[in-house]
Amino acid sequence: MAPFLILILLAVVLGIIGAAAEGLGYLLVIAIVLFVATIAVAAQRWSRGSARGKRRRTLR
Q1: Tens digits of per-residue pLDDT, 1-32?
Q2: Rounded distance, CA 21 to CA 45, Å?
Q3: What is the reported pTM?
Q4: For residue 26, what are the CA distances in angstroms to 8, 17, 21, 33, 51?
Q5: Dist CA 6 CA 34 (whole Å)
Q6: Whole-angstrom distance, CA of residue 14 vs CA of residue 39
Q7: How many helices (H) and strands (E) does the chain have?
Q8: DSSP label at residue 22
Q9: Rounded distance between C-alpha atoms, residue 30 and residue 14, angstroms
């Protein structure tokens, strides 16, 4: 959980610097890509983890 929060915080900081500083628009693009990738990996990990926890019962 902590690595995802750190990556999201890094994306926000890079986005703010990229938006505020003139000529550093590439930082904004990197921040957006990093944010989307972090959310995608987190969603995949959480959905896979919840599927493991569920046990199926068979009816007899």
Answers
A1: 788 889 899 999 999 998 898 888 899 899 99
A2: 34
A3: 0.70
A4: 17, 10, 11, 11, 38
A5: 11
A6: 16
A7: 2, 0
A8: T
A9: 8
Torsion of CA 48, 50, 47, 2, to 10 degrees: -90
pLDDT above 70 covers a percentage of the chain that reads 83
- The residue among 24, 28, 33 whose CA lies nearest residue 14 is 28
Amino acid at 59: L
What is the Cα–Cα distance from 56 to 60, expressed in whole angstroms?
A: 13
* Residue range 36-40: mean pLDDT, rounded: 93
Amino acid present at 53:
G
